[in-house]
Structures are given as C-alpha cells and as structure tokens.
Amino acid sequence: MFDPLDLYSPDEQVQLEKITEATTIFTKLHQDDPVVVITAVNDNRIDGIKAQEEDEDEEEEDSIIDILDLPPATYATPQASLCVLLLLKPDKQVNFNTSNDDYDDSTNSKSVEIICKEKEISSELLSSLLTWYTDLWPNSRLNTELKICTRIPRLRSYGQKELLLNYYTSLLKKYDNCNEDYINDQIVKELSLRISENCGRSAQPSMTRDFNLQNLVHVIQLYEPSLTADNLGWKTWGSSLILSQELVNDLETNKNNKKSKSIRRVLELGAGTGLVGIAWACKWRQLYGNESIEMFVTDLPDIVTNLRKNVQNNDLDDFVVADVLDWTNPEDFIKKYSDEKFDTILIADPIYSPNHPEWVVNMICKFLAINGRCHLEIPLRAKYALEREKLSNLLEQHGLVVYNERSSEGMDDWGVVKYLYKEIGWDTTLTD
C-alpha cells in the first residue's frame, strides 16, 4: 500500500505525523464538506505536505514535484483528477524513444496549447486543475497552467512508477463504483490505460508510434494494437527500424544511378506493422513518385488488417498492396498476383521458431529474381543461435550468397539489442 511517509526522512516524518493528526481531527469535524477541510488546512498553515515556504517564491523554473503534489483521491474534484490522468498520458513515441521510462525534456519547450492538444485536455479541465492549485489547495510549484502542464508529466520518470500505481489504485477505488456518468467513465478508462502503461510493454494498450528516419521527409505513423493472443506481428520490432534506415540510406546513395530508377518489384515478407516496406515505399515516392514500382507487403491473415491500415495511414495504398502470404502455402498469393519474381525482398526479424529458417529460405528461393537482392535483418538473440546457423547453411545449400554483411546495435521496447544485416542474392556463377 502507498505510504506518503516513505517519501520523507525521519525528521520530516515527525513533523508530518503532527500534521496528519491535526488534519484527521479537523476532517472528522467537517467530514460532510471536504472543501472546508482543504481550505482550513491551508488557512491554518498545515502545509508541510503541499505549500512552499513563503521565502521560496523565487523558485527555479525546473522545480521538482512528487506524488504528494497530486490532488488526493479523497478530496479532488473529478475534473481535476481527469486532467491529471491526461497529463500523465505517455507522449507519442518516436523511434522507440518513450517518456514512459524517462521524462522527455522537450516538453519544457512546448506551449500549453500544444501540450493540451497532444494530451486531449480541454481548457475547462485545465482550468479546474488550476483552480485546485490556486484556490482549494494552494501550491506555488503548480500555480500556473505552464507549471501544471510541464511538471506533472515528469512524474512518469522511472523512480515514480510504483508510487504512481498506488495513486492510480486510490483513484480507482473512488470511481470504480460511482454512479455512471460521462466524467466518471472517462476517469476509469484513463486509469485502466495508465495502469497498463506502467506494467511493461507486453501489457500496454494500443498505441500509435512515429518513426523519423534520416534522409526521409515523411514521418511514418504506425498503429500497434495491444499485444493479445501472442500476435507478435502487432508490434514493431527494433530490427525493422534498423533495416528501414539501412534501406532508406541505400536508396538515397544510389538515387542518381539510372539502374535504380528502372521498374522495380518489391516484396516484404512477414511485414508485421509494415515499417520496413512503408519506409522503402516512402523513400521511393520521395525520389521517383509512384511510377515504375509494384510493391507488396505481406503477412498472415490476423496481421494483414492492421498492416493494411498502416499502409493507408501513410497514404501509400495507391501503389502498395497489403495482402496475405502464408510461408507454408504461398500458392494462393501466386494465383492472385502471378509467379513473376521480385527484384527486392525485405525481411526483418523472421526467426523465432525452429521452422522459420527453412520457411524463410524457401520464400527467398521462390520469389527472388536471378539478379535480385534480399535484405535481411535479424536480432542476435542467444536463444536462436542454432536457427541462425541453420539459416546460413540453408542459404548456401540453395545457391544463395551473402554479398554484404554487417552488425549494428539499436533500441527496441526492451532495451539495447545487437543486429545482423545480410544482403543476399543468387550465386550467378552457378547459372552462367
């Protein structure tokens, strides 16, 4: 259970015990009017928890707040509580950088209007929270809209997660059994989201991420449903970001090569949320428009619905087709779109079962043109070392050559990961 005394040193706890005792006595006398309690507590200078000393008026702009600065569940108005919950919503993620774990200092440079728009906070809600901090429970660290909007989100930082969970559960106890109305429903909804966001990536709700790549004008937006039913294709993996940047850089480097502008057939296998294929398509469109390109991003039926949505959200559905391609039964895809080979095949993180190396090599053999290239990015997970070795052996056995190979390091939702890139093509000496 959350105990506010945990936040204070022993000397401060002695002082806080006296404050708590006085507050309890006064609360019992005025239990029917909590606003009277709040006002009286402040009027009588029982402010060891909240109010700053009067000589701290000239505080620094980056003054730190803690959980005790949030409106307590017992007394806060629903509007104030909802506003706090919206302020604690994670910022939109960019390239796996998230304010869930570390506070993003860029928030300090944003205006109140921008923050409220991003967090979907109405002026009425913000005004109700400002009234709380100026009239009902004065707090000089949170007595302006700018202070509220820039300082409360800092509580998402790593050291506050457990305390935030306790704060959320205290609110949930108050509102979960309340009579149904719109604001109570909103509070419970936001509480469920904030709690799940603090329980690790696997428990997080659906989200939209931004991916901002070098040499690419378009900022890619991908929707990721919550991870349910072990649908790993519903999230974006770090290898996709690494491979996307590799491909965008390669297209940029070779943009003046006449051969690169020739008609291109491109296939992404196991596209998931579609980052690799979408990044490639966006860069191609940036360089050459929508001409001389035929592109497919593919996955299993459960994944393709969201994949198609991401293609549409990035305005690529006029030349990028999202459809089903089952690695164990590609004939349906071939019947629908012909057996013509592809100049470029894209694959990111395809190995997470013993069967995958064989399936991946079979797909490369079936769909790669004689002079085509397959771009493969795999994470170096210790658990799948044997599968990676099997993949290399199968490539060699089928007459495929690794023309380019390099390792790199990058981030995903679970931290730093090492990756291996392979550029694969046919051994043309065997076909001459």
Automatic annotation (TrEMBL):
InterPro entries: Methyltransf_16, SAM-dependent_MTases_sf. One of its GO terms (molecular function) is protein-lysine N-methyltransferase activity. This is Uncharacterized protein. The keyword Lyase does not apply. It holds the Pfam family Methyltransf_16. The lineage of its organism: Eukaryota, Fungi, Dikarya, Ascomycota, Saccharomycotina. Keywords: Transferase. One of its GO terms (cellular component) is cytosol. It comes from the Eukaryota. GO terms for biological process: positive regulation of translational termination.
